[in-house]
Request: fold
Amino acid sequence: MLQSVGLAAAVVPSVALAASWDVTQASSNLGVFALSDAELAERRINVTPIGELELPTGEIIACDPLISGTEMPTLSRRVKPGHYPVSLLETQGRVAVAVLRFRLGTPVRWELATLPGQDVTTLKDDEIFGYPVDGGLGSFMDKTAMVLMSEQLDKLGADQNYYDDVLAAEFTPNQDRFVMHRPVAGNPLNIAMFWSGWGDGFYPSFWGLDAAGELLLLTTDFGVLEDADGREKK
Reply:
Protein backbone atom coordinates (compact mmCIF):
# COMPACT_ATOMS: atom_id res chain seq x y z
CA MET A 1 0.00 0.00 0.00
CA LEU A 2 1.22 3.48 -0.86
CA GLN A 3 1.12 6.00 1.98
CA SER A 4 0.25 9.64 1.38
CA VAL A 5 2.30 12.38 3.02
CA GLY A 6 1.80 16.12 3.27
CA LEU A 7 -1.54 17.90 3.43
CA ALA A 8 -3.30 14.80 4.72
CA ALA A 9 -2.38 11.36 5.92
CA ALA A 10 -4.27 8.52 4.31
CA VAL A 11 -3.69 5.23 2.60
CA VAL A 12 -4.47 4.69 -1.06
CA PRO A 13 -4.14 1.48 -3.07
CA SER A 14 -1.16 1.36 -5.38
CA VAL A 15 1.84 -0.69 -6.36
CA ALA A 16 4.61 -1.45 -3.87
CA LEU A 17 7.64 0.78 -4.31
CA ALA A 18 11.17 -0.42 -4.80
CA ALA A 19 13.83 -0.01 -2.14
CA SER A 20 15.09 3.15 -3.86
CA TRP A 21 12.18 5.55 -4.29
CA ASP A 22 11.40 5.99 -7.99
CA VAL A 23 8.78 8.43 -9.28
CA THR A 24 7.71 6.04 -12.05
CA GLN A 25 6.84 3.47 -9.37
CA ALA A 26 4.34 5.90 -7.82
CA SER A 27 2.05 5.46 -10.83
CA SER A 28 1.83 2.63 -13.34
CA ASN A 29 0.10 4.96 -15.80
CA LEU A 30 2.71 7.50 -16.87
CA GLY A 31 3.32 5.52 -20.05
CA VAL A 32 -0.15 6.50 -21.27
CA PHE A 33 1.35 9.65 -22.81
CA ALA A 34 3.46 7.58 -25.20
CA LEU A 35 0.45 5.73 -26.64
CA SER A 36 -0.89 6.39 -30.12
CA ASP A 37 -4.54 7.20 -30.77
CA ALA A 38 -5.07 3.61 -31.89
CA GLU A 39 -3.46 2.24 -28.74
CA LEU A 40 -5.58 4.52 -26.55
CA ALA A 41 -8.71 3.30 -28.31
CA GLU A 42 -7.64 -0.33 -27.90
CA ARG A 43 -7.19 0.27 -24.19
CA ARG A 44 -10.59 1.97 -24.01
CA ILE A 45 -9.20 5.36 -23.06
CA ASN A 46 -10.96 8.44 -24.41
CA VAL A 47 -9.30 11.86 -24.57
CA THR A 48 -11.63 14.77 -23.80
CA PRO A 49 -10.37 18.37 -24.29
CA ILE A 50 -12.19 20.67 -21.85
CA GLY A 51 -10.76 24.12 -22.58
CA GLU A 52 -7.85 26.41 -21.85
CA LEU A 53 -6.74 27.37 -18.36
CA GLU A 54 -5.66 30.93 -17.65
CA LEU A 55 -2.40 31.12 -15.68
CA PRO A 56 -1.56 34.82 -15.30
CA THR A 57 1.14 34.18 -12.68
CA GLY A 58 2.20 30.66 -13.70
CA GLU A 59 1.84 29.59 -10.06
CA ILE A 60 -0.37 26.53 -10.07
CA ILE A 61 -2.59 24.99 -7.42
CA ALA A 62 -3.69 21.37 -7.85
CA CYS A 63 -6.31 20.44 -5.26
CA ASP A 64 -9.86 19.54 -4.36
CA PRO A 65 -11.35 22.99 -5.01
CA LEU A 66 -14.15 22.49 -2.48
CA ILE A 67 -11.99 21.84 0.58
CA SER A 68 -9.19 24.32 -0.08
CA GLY A 69 -8.87 28.03 0.45
CA THR A 70 -6.61 31.01 0.02
CA GLU A 71 -4.04 29.36 2.29
CA MET A 72 -3.56 26.52 -0.22
CA PRO A 73 0.08 26.62 -1.36
CA THR A 74 1.10 26.57 -5.01
CA LEU A 75 3.25 23.84 -6.51
CA SER A 76 6.99 24.36 -6.23
CA ARG A 77 7.54 24.58 -9.97
CA ARG A 78 6.24 27.58 -11.88
CA VAL A 79 5.43 27.82 -15.57
CA LYS A 80 5.49 30.68 -18.02
CA PRO A 81 2.31 32.76 -17.62
CA GLY A 82 -0.21 32.13 -20.38
CA HIS A 83 -3.20 29.97 -21.19
CA TYR A 84 -2.85 26.23 -21.65
CA PRO A 85 -5.15 23.39 -22.74
CA VAL A 86 -6.60 20.94 -20.26
CA SER A 87 -7.76 17.47 -21.24
CA LEU A 88 -9.10 14.42 -19.45
CA LEU A 89 -8.37 10.76 -20.06
CA GLU A 90 -11.60 8.91 -19.36
CA THR A 91 -12.41 5.22 -19.04
CA GLN A 92 -14.98 3.01 -17.33
CA GLY A 93 -17.24 6.05 -17.14
CA ARG A 94 -14.74 7.91 -14.96
CA VAL A 95 -12.11 10.63 -15.23
CA ALA A 96 -8.90 8.65 -14.88
CA VAL A 97 -6.23 11.28 -15.56
CA ALA A 98 -6.28 15.09 -15.80
CA VAL A 99 -3.68 16.77 -18.00
CA LEU A 100 -2.52 20.39 -18.20
CA ARG A 101 -0.38 20.63 -21.34
CA PHE A 102 2.34 23.30 -21.78
CA ARG A 103 3.88 22.14 -25.04
CA LEU A 104 3.74 19.18 -27.41
CA GLY A 105 5.94 16.17 -26.92
CA THR A 106 6.24 12.89 -25.06
CA PRO A 107 7.79 13.11 -21.60
CA VAL A 108 11.01 11.20 -21.11
CA ARG A 109 11.45 12.16 -17.45
CA TRP A 110 8.97 12.54 -14.61
CA GLU A 111 8.97 14.42 -11.31
CA LEU A 112 6.49 14.10 -8.47
CA ALA A 113 4.76 17.47 -8.11
CA THR A 114 5.54 18.89 -4.68
CA LEU A 115 4.73 21.88 -2.51
CA PRO A 116 7.37 24.18 -1.01
CA GLY A 117 9.07 22.36 1.84
CA GLN A 118 8.36 18.89 0.48
CA ASP A 119 11.40 16.82 -0.45
CA VAL A 120 10.99 13.51 -2.30
CA THR A 121 14.28 12.26 -0.85
CA THR A 122 12.56 12.12 2.55
CA LEU A 123 9.85 9.76 1.31
CA LYS A 124 9.85 6.19 2.50
CA ASP A 125 9.48 3.41 -0.01
CA ASP A 126 5.67 3.32 0.34
CA GLU A 127 4.93 7.07 0.53
CA ILE A 128 3.87 9.80 -1.89
CA PHE A 129 3.04 13.48 -1.87
CA GLY A 130 -0.30 14.51 -3.34
CA TYR A 131 -3.56 16.15 -2.40
CA PRO A 132 -6.62 14.90 -0.48
CA VAL A 133 -10.06 14.84 -2.08
CA ASP A 134 -13.15 14.98 0.10
CA GLY A 135 -15.65 16.48 -2.36
CA GLY A 136 -15.16 14.16 -5.33
CA LEU A 137 -13.37 16.80 -7.40
CA GLY A 138 -9.86 17.65 -8.51
CA SER A 139 -8.69 20.85 -10.17
CA PHE A 140 -5.94 22.95 -11.70
CA MET A 141 -5.90 26.72 -11.22
CA ASP A 142 -3.72 29.79 -10.96
CA LYS A 143 -3.30 31.08 -7.40
CA THR A 144 -5.21 34.24 -8.34
CA ALA A 145 -8.26 32.18 -9.31
CA MET A 146 -8.31 30.61 -5.86
CA VAL A 147 -8.48 34.10 -4.34
CA LEU A 148 -11.47 34.96 -6.53
CA MET A 149 -13.31 31.76 -5.66
CA SER A 150 -12.63 32.24 -1.95
CA GLU A 151 -14.16 35.72 -2.17
CA GLN A 152 -17.28 34.23 -3.75
CA LEU A 153 -17.45 31.56 -1.06
CA ASP A 154 -17.44 34.26 1.60
CA LYS A 155 -20.54 35.80 -0.01
CA LEU A 156 -22.65 32.65 0.33
CA GLY A 157 -25.40 32.50 2.93
CA ALA A 158 -25.37 30.11 5.86
CA ASP A 159 -27.75 27.72 4.07
CA GLN A 160 -25.80 27.70 0.79
CA ASN A 161 -22.84 25.72 -0.51
CA TYR A 162 -20.65 26.40 -3.52
CA TYR A 163 -21.34 23.19 -5.38
CA ASP A 164 -25.13 23.14 -5.12
CA ASP A 165 -25.67 26.87 -5.52
CA VAL A 166 -22.95 27.76 -8.02
CA LEU A 167 -21.24 24.80 -9.69
CA ALA A 168 -24.02 22.25 -10.20
CA ALA A 169 -25.65 24.14 -13.06
CA GLU A 170 -22.28 24.47 -14.81
CA PHE A 171 -21.41 20.79 -14.42
CA THR A 172 -24.76 19.53 -15.73
CA PRO A 173 -24.16 20.11 -19.47
CA ASN A 174 -21.02 17.94 -19.20
CA GLN A 175 -22.75 15.05 -17.42
CA ASP A 176 -21.25 16.35 -14.14
CA ARG A 177 -17.76 15.30 -15.29
CA PHE A 178 -16.01 18.64 -15.67
CA VAL A 179 -16.32 22.40 -15.98
CA MET A 180 -14.06 25.35 -16.76
CA HIS A 181 -15.44 27.50 -13.97
CA ARG A 182 -15.12 31.29 -13.85
CA PRO A 183 -15.56 32.46 -10.25
CA VAL A 184 -16.45 35.96 -11.44
CA ALA A 185 -18.60 36.48 -14.53
CA GLY A 186 -16.79 38.54 -17.14
CA ASN A 187 -13.38 37.83 -15.62
CA PRO A 188 -11.29 35.44 -17.76
CA LEU A 189 -9.70 33.78 -14.72
CA ASN A 190 -10.95 30.22 -14.58
CA ILE A 191 -10.55 26.92 -12.78
CA ALA A 192 -10.44 23.50 -14.44
CA MET A 193 -12.57 21.22 -12.26
CA PHE A 194 -13.19 17.53 -12.90
CA TRP A 195 -14.31 14.28 -11.29
CA SER A 196 -11.61 12.62 -9.24
CA GLY A 197 -11.71 9.06 -10.52
CA TRP A 198 -13.77 6.89 -8.19
CA GLY A 199 -14.22 9.78 -5.76
CA ASP A 200 -12.56 10.74 -2.51
CA GLY A 201 -8.97 9.74 -1.82
CA PHE A 202 -5.41 11.01 -2.03
CA TYR A 203 -3.94 11.58 -5.48
CA PRO A 204 -0.44 12.37 -6.77
CA SER A 205 0.42 14.80 -9.55
CA PHE A 206 3.45 14.61 -11.83
CA TRP A 207 5.48 16.93 -14.05
CA GLY A 208 6.41 15.47 -17.45
CA LEU A 209 9.64 16.81 -18.96
CA ASP A 210 11.44 16.39 -22.28
CA ALA A 211 15.07 15.41 -22.78
CA ALA A 212 16.17 19.04 -22.37
CA GLY A 213 14.37 19.34 -19.04
CA GLU A 214 11.59 21.55 -20.42
CA LEU A 215 8.14 21.11 -18.89
CA LEU A 216 5.65 19.46 -21.20
CA LEU A 217 2.72 18.78 -18.91
CA LEU A 218 1.30 18.47 -15.42
CA THR A 219 -0.92 15.48 -14.74
CA THR A 220 -2.92 14.03 -11.85
CA ASP A 221 -3.51 10.28 -11.75
CA PHE A 222 -6.81 9.30 -10.10
CA GLY A 223 -6.04 5.60 -9.97
CA VAL A 224 -8.65 4.35 -12.44
CA LEU A 225 -6.20 3.08 -15.04
CA GLU A 226 -3.88 0.18 -14.36
CA ASP A 227 -0.66 -0.09 -16.34
CA ALA A 228 -1.96 2.66 -18.65
CA ASP A 229 -4.91 0.45 -19.59
CA GLY A 230 -8.60 1.24 -19.13
CA ARG A 231 -9.87 -2.27 -19.73
CA GLU A 232 -11.21 -3.97 -16.63
CA LYS A 233 -9.05 -6.87 -15.49
CA LYS A 234 -10.63 -10.30 -15.75
In short: The two ends are 22 Å apart (CA to CA). The chain is about 10% helix and 35% strand. Residues 6-19 have pLDDT under 50 and may be disordered. Residues 131 and 202 are 5 Å apart (CA to CA).
